[in-house]
Amino acid sequence: MKPSKYPGCSGTRNLADNLSDLKAQVAANQRGIQLVSELIEEYSLEVVQAYMSHIQKNAELAVRDMLKEIARNAIAKTGSAVLKATEYMDNGTPIVLTVTLDKDRGSAVCDFTGTGVEVWGNLNAPRAITLSALIYCLRCMVGHDVPLNQGCLNPVRVVIPTGSLLDPSERAAVVGGNVLTSQRIVDVVLKAFQVCAASQGCMNNLTLGEESWGYYETVAGGSGAGPGWHGSGGVHTHMTNTRITDVEIVETRYPLLVWSFSLRAGSGGRGQWNGGDGVTRELVFRRTVQLSVLTERRAFQPYGMNGGEPGARGLNLLQRTDGRLINLGGKSSVEAYPGDKYIMNSPGGGGYGRPSDVTDTNKENDNKYSEFLERGSVYEYRSAQEGV
């Protein structure tokens, strides 16, 4: 493939930066090899391999215990060990999940049959993305401190229709699947298990640049509330593994000003426990740049749970110097000129439980499954990060 053959495309904007990134990846792998080799040298290959197996078996047992508990609770409350949920991408494509639990074996079949077909655009997600999102959700739900490993998925059989959004053809564009569809898969898994309200469901991707440089940032939003906790405002949710660049660095290195960056008051869904607020981020450009946004939850709001209200949907705006205010939609690429202002309003998280000022008219549906207490290794890691 030669990207430069296609209009508007090039192999790279900055070859030196790309090579440095590759060297950093090679160095990280070499460091990993070094550390594993030191373990083997100190404890022997047999011992290291044995403990690798122990870690996977421990993770498998933890997930099986969790699935047994969820199955028993579901049967007690609904008479069935089958959990179902459907979420829609902003373009209308459904992500459908049916979870069939075995209360005796502690296993599950996660069947995505019914999910929409491969889409025109880059929101397609390779099968590995779905597996990664699923293992993340399992680690969030499990009641033990479980290191990330394949053992978490041993009790789970995953069914994904070939040719669907979650298992597209080899020629399908997939960059948005990694940063957007992955978040929406988490939404549908947590919804099926009735764990908590939806978080922002998006990484709010923004890219801008010229022929010689490019800048990429992900913007925080609101996290969903759950039984016993309010959602957090202005955070990167789930498995984004990203943090935004400091304002001082952005304004020093690039031709733009961070006009404002604040919480978006009232954007979190109300509930007994409220969803976290999204953010408002405004950038003013000092030179002509190509501005691209790749976002979700601009059409459908992040759901609330057990009577909680949904979070506010996001909104991408471009304000021209003549005062015109333009809605860019969820996915767009436009030329921005000096003095133009880009305004991102990121989604809020959904609320959990009925707000105290709302009349209780349908209480029997408020607690379809047992309440979930926030716990597990991902929770412990996030708490440690937020405490820094």
From TrEMBL:
Give one Pfam hit by family name: Hydantoinase_B
Q: Where is the Hydantoinase B/oxoprolinase domain?
A: 11-355
Ranges for the region named Disordered are: 345-365
Q: A Gene Ontology molecular-function term? A: 5-oxoprolinase (ATP-hydrolyzing) activity
Its name, as the record gives it, is Hydantoinase B/oxoprolinase domain-containing protein
GO cellular component: a single term? cytosol
An individual GO BP term: glutathione metabolic process
